[in-house]
Amino acid sequence: MSIALAMLLAVALDALVGEPKRFHPLVGYGRYASMIERRVHRDTRAAGIVAWSLAVVAPLIVFTVVRALVPSWLAFVLDVLVHYTAIGRRSLGEHARPIADALERGDLAAARTSVGWMVSRDTEALDASQVAGAATESVLENGNDAVFGALFWFVLLGGPGALLFRLANTLDAMWGYRTPRFLRFGETAARIDDALGFFPARLTALTYAGVGRFDGAMRCWREQGLRWKSPNAGPVMAAGAGALNVTLGGPAPYHGQWQHRPGLGEGDAPDASSIRAALRLVDRGVIAWVAAVLVIAVAAHA
């Protein structure tokens, strides 16, 4: 029951307050991880393992020990606060809605600027539909990375689980690129993030199907999910696109070159309404998860 209550409070806190505007813990963590990377970096997998251990295992041990030593009520508070900082449902909307707003008023330049905060592709080369597609893809993918993944690991392992997932996911975003600097060094961060995200991603895809167009989501997941280069983003975005009846994927510009990407979903071309629909899909999924956990907790204590 404490896990269910802590989840409810963390989700409510995120909805009411959003991300901390000042002194965000993940900003401080990013500086800590960057310091480790500068000092430990070598173009080897061994260096990557050492760096990942210092950046994730060390903070996780400290948190777990502190949590075990404090009174139970304070451990509960720590779990709520850690879970609150690990999820980003409200932040997702705060980043995505300005893109939809700009597209609706015909301000493509502003839409390109705003979507640049969410994606790594060359936004200046995107037309209005491609901007909407990029934002919709980001909302769907980050529904897993920033919301449902943290919920899954919190249910499984409490505060330490949510912390593990969020730190590992942050390191993948920092180090998990196939660039000359991170090709071997970042391999550990990328593979561990894939492993931690495997089950949450498939539950996220199933969630999108359950709260959206079920048949379309399951069909797109089955037929398209494995075509994507990421083993977790593929099922999530394919199911999400199918649930929304929107066509995503396709060629996208990165570092001055258009790269081929498989198509995802079916139906209409993306526009501002697709972005808003994706946000509503994530919101319905969060409600479904919290409700399910509360029902299970009540039934277990009946």
Helix content: over 70%
* Structural class based on helices, strands and sheet pairing: mainly alpha
* Low confidence ranges: none
Question: Care to count the β-strands?
Answer: 4
User: Helical element count?
Assistant: 11
What are the defining features of this structure?
two-stranded antiparallel sheet; threonine-phosphate decarboxylase activity; mainly alpha; 302 residues; 4% strand; 4 strands; two-stranded antiparallel ribbon; globular
Topology, element by element:
Elements: H1 2-17, H2 25-40, H3 45-69, H4 72-86, H5 89-104, H6 108-115, H7 128-175, H8 187-211, H9 214-224, H10 233-244, E1 247-249, E2 252-254, E3 257-259, E4 263-265, H11 272-300
Antiparallel strand pairs: 1-4, 2-3
Transmembrane segments: 46-66, 146-168, 281-300
GO molecular function: ABC-type vitamin B12 transporter activity; threonine-phosphate decarboxylase activity
Protein name: Cobalamin biosynthesis protein CobD
Please give a structural write-up.
The termini are close together. The chain has one domain. The mean pLDDT is 93. It is mainly alpha-helical and 302 residues long. Helix 3 (45-69) runs antiparallel to helix 4, helix 7 runs antiparallel to helix 10 and helix 8 (187-211) runs parallel beside helix 10. Strand 2 and strand 3 (257-259) form a beta hairpin. The longest helix is centred in the middle third of the chain and has 48 residues, at 128-175. The chain is 73% helix and 4% strand.
Brief rundown of the structure:
With 302 residues, the chain is mainly alpha-helical. The protein contains 11 helices and 4 strands; from the N terminus they run H-H-H-H-H-H-H-H-H-H-E-E-E-E-H. The chain crosses the membrane at residues 46-66, 146-168, 281-300.
